[in-house]
Amino acid sequence: MSEQISVLVVDDEPIIRAGLSAILDSQADITVAGTANDGEEAVEACARLRPNVLLMDIRMPRRDGLWALAELGRRGLTRPGRSRVLMLTTFDLDEYVDDALAAGASGFLLKNSSYEELTGAVRAAAAGHSALSPAVTQRIIEGHLSGRRRPGDQELARLRDLTEREVDVLRLIRDGMSNAEIAERLVVSLHTVKTHVSRVLTKTGCQSRAQAAVLARNTLP
């Protein structure tokens, strides 16, 4: 991206906040717009600063990151074209991955991710792409919840208006493919893929590719 990417760093540990901020501020195309130390502060700061990306811890006192993510969605602050949320944690537990992505997070990073993974994820989220740490991506692709329940009627209803080609695109999003990879697989232009992806997100009510991937993993064979 040619424009500066503004980031709000949210973590209850001052040292972690300072470290993340220093890493991000060292990048020519990224600037830290502000910091917050819990979910409530994150929501208010996001409403005030409108950052491109929130880098937010899950486990925090008072209000945690999952509460903040839901509240940001309720206020419309994470709709397409607004702030994107990257969840950051030391725990790669299944329920955190599912809850964060299903609630609209653009990605999920472990705190032991490399500098390159961190900055790359911020850039990907700002550009509207999914950003998952390699460990989390591998678990999703391998179907780490092998005993998943049957999809509910409401989940299936979200797929009802998709065309056959849009279902194909959704399935490839689930498999972690980029727009360019989808275009190559389907032998169509990149512009066509972007149009399909936009329609898939609109028709399913998903706020991000990551959320669409979770929906697809729950509903598509």
Helix-strand makeup class: alpha/beta
The domain tally reads 2
| Mean pLDDT figure | 85
- List SSEs in N-to-C order: EHEHEHEHEHEHHHHHH
| CATH homologous superfamily placement of the largest domain | Response regulator
Major beta sheet, strand line-up: 2-1-3-4-5-6
CATH class of the largest domain: Alpha Beta
Which percent range describes the beta-strand content?
Answer: 5-15%
CATH second-level architecture of the largest domain: 3-Layer(aba) Sandwich
Helical coverage, percent range: 40-55%
For the report, how would you describe the main beta sheet? 6 strands, parallel
Keywords: DNA-binding, Phosphoprotein, Transcription, Transcription regulation
GO biological process, one term: phosphorelay signal transduction system
Protein name: DNA-binding response regulator, LuxR family
Domain Response regulatory: 6-126
In short:
With 221 residues, this protein is of the alpha/beta class. It folds into two domains: 142 residues, Response regulator (Rossmann fold); 68 residues, Arc Repressor Mutant, subunit A (Orthogonal Bundle), CATH 1.10.10.10.
Overview of this protein structure:
InterPro entries: CheY-like_superfamily (IPR011006), NreC/VraR/RcsB-like_REC (IPR058245), Sig_transdc_resp-reg_C-effctor (IPR016032), Sig_transdc_resp-reg_receiver (IPR001789), Tscrpt_reg_LuxR_C (IPR000792), WalR-like (IPR039420). Residues 155-220 form the HTH luxR-type domain. This protein has helices at residues 14-25, 39-49, 65-74, 94-102, 115-126, 134-141, 153-157, 164-174, 179-186, 190-204, 209-219, and strands spanning 5-10, 30-36, 53-57, 84-89, 107-110, 131-132. The mean pLDDT is 85. With 221 residues, the chain is an alpha/beta fold. The protein has a 6-stranded parallel beta sheet, sandwiched between helices. It has 2 domains: 5-146, Response regulator (Rossmann fold), CATH 3.40.50; 151-218, Arc Repressor Mutant, subunit A. Helix 4 links the parallel strand 4 and strand 5 (107-110).
